[in-house]
Amino acid sequence: MRFYSRKKELAELKRMQKLSFADHSRLTVVTGRKRIGKTSLIMKSSVKKLPTVYLLISRKTEAILASEFIPIINQSLNTFVPTEIRTFRSLFQYLMELASQQPFNLVIDEFQEFHNINKSVHSDMKNIWDTYRKKSKMNLIVSYSTYPLVYGIFQNDKENLLSGADSIIELSAFDSTTLKQIMDDYNPRHNNDDLLALYTFTGGVPKYVAWFCNNHSLTVDAMISFMVREDSPFIDEGKRLFVEEFRRNYATYFSILSAVSGGINTHQEIEATLGDKTINGQISKLIMDYNILVRQRPILAKGEPQPLVRYEIQDNFVRFWFNYLDRHRSLIETKNFAALRDIIKSDYPNYSVLMLERYFKQKFAESHKYDAIGSWWELKDNQNRIDIVALKLGRNNQAIVVEVRRNKINYKPSLLAKKAEHFVKKLLPGYRVEVSCLSLKDM
Fold it and tell me: Which of 13, 82, 376, 431 might form a disulfide with 298, Cβ 3.0–4.6 angstroms?
């Protein structure tokens, strides 16, 4: 798949490179969840056309990493690094001294792995950087994965190199316009259900989108067939993302995420599903430390009772993986892929309705025309729910109330109007409300 979007990010990388080479060393941090395209972005920038050292941090001993990096540095900069260097601290100091003589790019990919190799590297590098940065011309680009979130390792540690970054680029998934462009390019005959499926299964994460594009699988059925087969890269993707991070407690975390992915989304319901196990600590970590779950409250709700809170997995792929590929692991283990494909295809029309709601909320957000966007529901009457409420920006007392349906034939205008009247009377007296239905045709 060709490179899409990221114009602002590429411009920022080029800006930092010019400053580094013309003035003194600068540090750019590129962050985002795994598979979001950090390395592709960095290598797409002009680093390829200039002297560049690319170092990928993997979970090996520091001495082995140093021995592997030395020939890379020698070849990339046409220099000689003493083979007796066995620590990254010494290697980094050597590179900073070299940058005092010639400008070059240094890319350190998956920097968070140093936390598992040698935690002192963080402060060692900061000390060296502070000593040499003003008298050298290195364009240092560091990438690290924040999925699961590693704020505790970096942003909150003033002794860490990354705490003094000159620029931070936070990568997000592709927006809806980019997804539509990709579909137009790789499957010009697609329909809106195909576009919704791409959004449902990938959430716009570039690597997952590329897997489909590169394998010419861009219809609903083709995507499901590609995901659910032997040797599919999707099958164990959730494990690759989370098992190592959750470690010994992964079974409990997986159980919580499996429950939430299946629509069991209140605290009480989740605990009941897990056999009345107390999960306060795990829920907090999934929200604060790992950035996987989010608390959802009715729009405009303040200080609402705990039972009104709903937990959601915001990442579309993660929600799909736990709901189908983890939940039906027994079918995968017995290689009964046909049965699992049938389950997903049968569920898809209902499952995709929530994804369609998310899609339209994202479209509302991308328009930058609204103060607040959310859903609304009541504790006493769970049926009295409004799919989307959006408060218009800069226009006094105007709101949009939306019901989302795959097919508008199922839309009942009088029922939504009644809900909207109740909602406005309770929370937005005096507001003028626009009531409408959005469906696949409106994508």
Answer: 376
**What are 232-289's pLDDT values in tens digits?**
999 999 998 888 778 777 889 999 999 999 999 999 999 999 988 888 889 998 998 8
The residues near 241 (Cβ < 8 Å, ≥ 6 apart) are 34, 147, 148, 318
Type of residue found at 430: G
- Pairing relationship of beta strands 398-404 and 26-32 according to DSSP bridges: unpaired
- In degrees and rounded to multiples of 5, residue 132 shows phi and psi of -105, -15
pLDDT digits (tens, 9 = 90+) for 67-91: 999 999 999 999 999 999 999 999 9
- Per the CB < 8 A criterion, the answer to whether 384 and 422 are in contact is yes
Surface-to-core class of residue 6, CB atoms within 10 Å of its CB (0-12 exposed, 13-18 middle, 19+ buried) = buried
C-alpha to C-alpha distance for 388 and 312, rounded to whole angstroms = 16
pTM of the complete model beyond 0.70:
yes
DSSP calls for 371-411 = EEEEEE--SS-TT--EEEEEEETTSTTEEEEEEE-SSGGG-
Report the alpha-carbon distance of residue 390 to residue 388 in Å, rounded: 7
Q: Domains along the chain?
A: 7-170 (3.40.50.300), 237-334 (1.10.10), 368-442 (3.40.91.50)
Q: Using CA atoms, how far apart are residues 278 and 438, in angstroms rounded to an integer?
A: 39
**Residue 371, both tokens:** 């103060």
Alpha carbons 377 and 375: distance in angstroms, whole number: 7
